[in-house]
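cron nightly-structures :: item 1 of 1
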Amino acid sequence: MSSINGTQINYYFICKTKLWLFSHNIQMEQESDDVALGKQLHEKSYKREKEFLIDNLINVDFIKNTNPIEIHEVKKTQKMEKSHEFQLLYYMYYLKHEKNIDNIVGYLDYPSNREKIQIELTEEKESMLEEIIENIKGTISGGIPKPKKSRICRKCAYFEFCYI
């Protein structure tokens, strides 16, 4: 398997420029107020749950050792639910193919509105992920993609890099 991580899967759906910059070690998220808010929300809502870093690629917000094993990804809002879903699906895919763990169910947790959405890894989603991984590799290996301005750009940590 490649060295693709969950953040790259997430950024693939949000912005190819952001994906390329992040993948080339231009990381500006640590200064983002939105990222800091998300971390605070996670810490406040799930005080007893610990993050898991697997192979320096997979950073699961928390895992419950149940049957099936539950992996949880905590997000602030549902605005980018598709990117959240595929990030979580990638974690499940990685655990299945790299760690031989296939008794897994995933949950997207949105503590702000007390919603929890169950995500299952199907064969169709696995095929989609494999195509997405190849597309990410292509994006990363090429030149920097031209930014496509959208309404989410204003809050992006890379905004000034792209537009100033």
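cron nightly-structures :: done
The helical segments are 6-14, 16-23, 33-45, 81-99, 123-141, 159-163.
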